[in-house]
Design a protein that fits this description.
Helices cover about 30% and strands about 25% of the residues. The protein is α/β, with parallel strands linked by helices. It folds into two domains: about 140 residues, Quinone Oxidoreductase, Chain A, domain 1 (Alpha-Beta Complex), CATH 3.90.180; about 140 residues, NAD(P)-binding Rossmann-like Domain (Rossmann fold, 3-Layer(aba) Sandwich). Strands 3, 4, 5, 6, 7, 14 and 15 form a seven-stranded mixed β-sheet that branches. Helix 1 crosses helix 10 and helix 2 packs across helix 3. The longest helix has 23 residues. It starts with a strand and ends with a strand.
Length: about 325
Amino acid sequence: MFKAILVEKDDAGYRASVRELDDAALPDGDVTVRVAYSTLNYKDGLAITGKSPVVRKFPLVPGIDLAGTVEASTHPGWKPGDAVVLNGWGVGETHPGGLAQRARLKGDWLVPLPPAFTPAQAMAIGTAGYTAMLCVLALERHGVTPQQGPIVVTGAAGGVGSVAVAVLAKLGYQVAAVTGRPQEADYLRQLGAAEVLERAEFSAPGRPLARERWAGAVDSVGSHTLANVCAQMKYRGVVAACGLAGGMDLPATVAPFILRGVTLAGIDSVMCPLPERLLAWQRLGIDLEPQRLALIGAREIGLDEALATAPALLDGQVRGRVVVDVNR
């Protein structure tokens, strides 16, 4: 038996609760992991509250991240005792996820726990930090350098934004952090932001083209914010778009793309190929400085607390990361 959050939907409605499950409830897979820590991401908040149809199979254990130790394996790449991390692959959406004490998975979905991190630290980074690193890699891949000008990061006080600000600052970029929480300005400057901007500057409908300001951008918000960021890009600037906290729509025009040669690079962390995952985690071990990871911090909670924390996360009331000790 093991404890897990279980999301159910039936004639009685949509609900999430902590349950005791039998090992027979584990799905097919070639690796069984004893989970040490998981996280609470925006997508997990949606799954727990039912505010968006994230979960597509019921009943299901949510949790798109986990870190733990291999208990059993028939996969050639893993053996009992290996420390592993998982992000995405539909886990917590169509496959039982990490908000449980045990998980059975495909070995091809796992990456080794980087030696730079403990399991708890890896989950303090989680999908949010891993996605932020994918955004940074996309900017680099498209040739954006610190010499070309400042980088704007939207949703900067959230999980993705916090890691993006910290990593970009470490790499020598001048970072402008956009947030709807002005009380977090000191925190963002400590992470390395050179400038902190009010979300209101970006969240209202704007012009098709605006003054050129940014060489690159990391956007986790979408909607008008992403449209305004695109309109403010410098010639041949690059926007890495990875989220939709402000909405799925993109009320923009083609003007930035055909008049300034702006690149809009979509970042998908769920089905990202293994080589890119390995590189992202390797780079996090190098470019996310321990003191800045500590500053981002991680509020550690137990499984029961995750149920109450999910709505606050969706309401933008949670700074940084939430780590879930599944054995607490």
